Amino acid sequence: MPTAEALALAQEKGLDLVEVAPTAVPPVCRILDYGQYKYELQKREREQKKKQKSQTFKEVRLAVKIDVHDLKTKARRAAEFLDKGDRVKVTVRFRGREISHANLGRDLLMRTAEVLAEHGSIERQPLLEGRSMYIVMAPLEKRPEKKSDNGDVGSSTDAADTIGDAIAAKSQATASVTTAPAAAEAPAQQGQ
Fold it and tell me: Which of 16, 26, 46, 127 allows an S-S link to 34, with CB 3.0 to 4.6 Å?
């Protein structure tokens, strides 16, 4: 439709002629109330901002000479950050002549990344910057939780309080399955 006819039609209805898609060939226009159209666009933008989750950046600092228990504690804290959806910067600070052994810091960072592999993935490989080396880890994408038969949402190991309890329960279940066939074969061997 020619522009002049579209403008005349819009004025008859008391509305505005709004160009919706200027890059299309031919450009797409609509006859509508411009004020209301602008309000709806702003409303959509606000809704999209609400749905966006802002990722914060958390940092965990390590030393080259860190003890095993201290490393586990720092890794557990970093895992909590990753589970909450935050990105984590794991930093190793070199003091004094430790900088000459940068490979130890790189190994420590990679070992930490292996520990955190089930919580996040490496976004940036080890990078030496001044007297510190760091990696950046991003959280893994959330998977939808499976629903159980009774409709509750949760994991299959609700009875287990800790990971150790879940592993112990699993090993007991496999032990009972392996002993049952052996017990059934024993009487058959005695009868021969």
Answer: 16
